[in-house]
């Protein structure tokens, strides 16, 4: 409790309350201060527990970065929901955090003398604000008005005079231009006049305890009280109507109900909860989170890049909104900003509180189900091709199912449930390439609540870092393979599995049909050309009709039920529209006309020939010849990655594409015939799209930096000095 003010008033007069000038010099004694800053939103500090700190010990100040441990004790059933995913420090954490900080003093470096903190430093204003509050409280504790209020309430509340009862003061602040905006907490101990003043700042509130400090005292004492649990309280002073103390609101005395904790208990190490997301495959993943609208700039996004066994994260700058058609441009844009990423962890020890854990875990489990569904679809698709061939309609359908495998991809639609919503919370885009030991490359893309899957053969040498991903935005013909009313084992929210012809493949087919009719006309006359055009139109229409009624449903839903649920509508989509000037294309249709059918395009061509339309109105003009293109691997300026032959046999070959023996006769490998990717070329709109992204950059520091600016070596292993101070592969 505060002593009689006369003990501190050298001239016997009553001091002016709270003014620093009224504080005798001997009230400012030896100080020990810990300042912890809030996590930098441009880094992974928010969920890694790493913080920038300042430590003052007497006259000297030290700064550095340490790793702290927030949140309650973790158990086997801990879902990390009770502590805001580990991002926030609570008031109850302080008695534990300060000893943990002190144990990492080796990470701190000398900064300056306590009275020489640079005015432009991010520490200067918070330290000044803390000292002003301490001086204000010291002035209050020796003022007549405060002590009169204290004596008046002591008769009403016996616990205020009980030496066995612990208590603390709480001063609520009201800062207009908050100097503590980036400060998590400040903890201070001041030894003066035989007393120990402990002051804690946390969330616009100052907490103070006063205890006896006579005799010998340790120069370094990491014990701080728990002020998170209080009982009865008394408001001693109110400053709401006082202009002099406008930055403060009220001063309250609280009875403390917190129990005493031993220092050994506070320092007991806690096992950090992690998730093992390692697999037998070599994996390359990109995850882009949705922008935080509260930050005011929606071009900044948190991203993760998995390179084999190691994960890197950071803040990158993209366009304000992303579309599925932007995928070929987004990955090179991420590669351009690789210097902004820092090492996070080994994939076998992902921090359980990381926002990337749930989407990665869900996608990993879903990938196994998707591969099983693709395997099961092989017989269904073979039967479809055979049936259409027996009808004389197999040429076009077999071309995109059995011919060039880049002409198709799978789509997996699933229901929105609390589980799936939680797994994909704030995820904008997720792209993964998995190189399996059996020689199959699985390309999985998540966007807008839908998964897309493409397969290709992975035999021979493969690059360790390959940013080529297929464009799944344009769709041609589609065939629903299965629909599920209650999902499948391992993915109970799965509802529909479809295979799509790419839009470029559909265009090529239409052009081939039109060219066939044109050639027939040139060789055998107009009548024969018209007959061929009509035949082609009829065949295309019959294929569409066969696809629209040929699908399977599970035992839980009949055909009619599936159609009523919108799961039996198989449509062929055509028409192209430029998106953002990028050269990317997306399906479109005339207003009120539904989706354009390729059959209708062929019929239009036949009708135009029959009516003898002029060449300017010929069928060739009904198709835009814009074959789909994709991104060059080295777009973004990064040096080419070594192939698997160079990595073979070395320690860096861990989980690399060539790390496993190819299994002959693998059933999954046979699916590669459906889904190869042709050699990708640079699209005409890529440079303009990347140029738009570059124009908005600059708020996150330099991009690239020349040479290999990435925080990893050519094999994906973290490079010393490129990540966190204490980061190392686990």
Automatic annotation (TrEMBL):
Q: Basic and acidic residues: which segments have biased composition?
A: 600-612
Q: Which regions are flagged for Gly residues bias? A: 696-708
Q: Where is the composition biased (Low complexity)?
A: 584-599
- Highest rank taxon of the organism: Eukaryota
Record's protein name: Uncharacterized protein
Q: Where is this region: Disordered?
A: 1-28, 581-730
Output compositional bias ranges, type Acidic residues. 1-10
């Amino acid at each position: 409790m505060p002593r009689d003010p006369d003990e501190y008033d050298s001239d016997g007069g009553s001091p002016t309350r709270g003014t620093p000038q009224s504080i005798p010099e001997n009230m400012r004694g030896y100080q020990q201060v810990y300042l912890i800053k809030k996590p930098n939103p441009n880094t992974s500090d928010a969920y890694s527990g790493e913080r920038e700190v300042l430590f003052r010990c007497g006259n000297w100040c030290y700064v550095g970065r340490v790793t702290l441990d927030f949140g309650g004790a973790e158990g086997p059933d801990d879902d990390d929901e009770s502590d805001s995913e580990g991002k926030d420090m609570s008031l109850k954490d302080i008695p534990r955090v300060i000893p943990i900080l002190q144990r990492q003093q080796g990470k701190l470096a000398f900064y300056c003398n306590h009275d020489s903190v640079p005015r432009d430093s991010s520490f200067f204003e918070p330290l000044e604000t803390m000292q002003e509050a301490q001086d204000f409280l010291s002035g209050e504790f020796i003022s007549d008005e405060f002590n009169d209020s204290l004596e008046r309430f002591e008769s009403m509340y016996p616990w205020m005079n009980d030496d066995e009862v612990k208590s603390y003061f709480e001063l609520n602040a009201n800062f207009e231009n908050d100097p503590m905006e980036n400060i998590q907490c400040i903890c201070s101990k001041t030894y003066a006049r035989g007393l120990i003043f402990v002051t804690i700042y946390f969330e616009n509130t100052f907490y103070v305890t006063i205890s006896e400090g006579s005799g010998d005292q340790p120069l370094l004492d990491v014990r701080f009280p728990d002020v998170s649990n209080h009982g009865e309280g008394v408001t001693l002073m109110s400053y709401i109507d006082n202009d002099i103390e406008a930055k403060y609101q009220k001063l309250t005395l609280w009875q403390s109900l917190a129990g005493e904790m031993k220092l050994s208990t506070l320092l007991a190490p806690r096992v950090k909860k992690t998730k093992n997301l390692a697999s037998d495959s070599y994996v390359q993943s990109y995850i882009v989170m949705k922008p935080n609208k509260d930050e005011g700039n929606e071009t900044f996004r948190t991203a993760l890049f998995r390179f084999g066994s190691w994960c890197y994260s950071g803040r990158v700058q993209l366009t304000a909104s992303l579309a599925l058609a932007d995928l070929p441009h987004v990955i090179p844009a991420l590669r351009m900003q690789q210097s902004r990423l820092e090492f996070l962890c080994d994939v076998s020890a992902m921090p359980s509180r990381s926002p990337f854990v749930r989407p990665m875990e869900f996608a990993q489990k879903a990938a196994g189900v998707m591969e099983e569904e693709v395997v099961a679809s092989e017989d269904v698709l073979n039967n479809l091709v055979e049936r259409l061939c027996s009808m004389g309609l197999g040429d076009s359908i077999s071309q995109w199912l059995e011919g060039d495998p880049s002409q198709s991809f799978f789509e997996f639609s699933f229901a929105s449930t609390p589980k799936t919503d939680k797994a994909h919370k704030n995820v904008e885009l997720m792209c993964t390439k998995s190189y399996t030991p059996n020689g199959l490359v699985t390309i999985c893309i998540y966007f807008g609540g839908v998964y897309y899957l493409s397969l290709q053969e992975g035999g021979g040498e493969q690059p360790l870092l390959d940013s080529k991903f297929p464009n799944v935005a344009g769709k041609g013909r589609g065939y629903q393979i299965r629909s599920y009313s209650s999902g499948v084992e391992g993915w109970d929210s799965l509802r529909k599995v479809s295979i799509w012809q790419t839009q470029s493949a559909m265009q090529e087919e239409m052009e081939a049909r039109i060219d066939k009719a044109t050639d027939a006309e040139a060789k055998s006359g107009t009548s024969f050309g018209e007959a061929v055009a009509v035949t082609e139109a009829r065949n295309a229409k019959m294929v569409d009709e066969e696809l629209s009624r040929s699908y399977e449903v599970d035992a839980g839903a009949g055909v009619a039920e599936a159609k009523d649920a919108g799961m039996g509508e198989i449509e062929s989509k055509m028409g192209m529209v430029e998106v953002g000037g990028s050269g990317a294309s997306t399906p479109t249709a005339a207003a009120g006309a539904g989706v354009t059918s390729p059959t209708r395009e062929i019929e239009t061509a036949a009708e135009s020939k029959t009516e003898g339309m002029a060449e300017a109105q010929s069928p060739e003009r009904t198709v835009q010849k814009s074959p789909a293109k994709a991104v060059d691997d080295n777009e973004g300026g990064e040096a080419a990655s070594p192939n698997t032959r160079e990595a073979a046999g070395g320690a860096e070959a861990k989980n690399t594409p060539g790390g496993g023996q190819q299994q002959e006769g693998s059933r999954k490998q046979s699916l590669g015939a459906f889904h190869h990717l042709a050699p990708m070329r640079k699209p005409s709109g890529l440079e303009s799209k990347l140029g738009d992204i570059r124009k908005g950059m600059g708020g996150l520091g330099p991009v690239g930096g020349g040479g290999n600016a990435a925080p990893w070596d050519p094999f994906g292993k973290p490079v010393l000095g490129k990540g966190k101070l204490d980061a190392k592969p686990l």
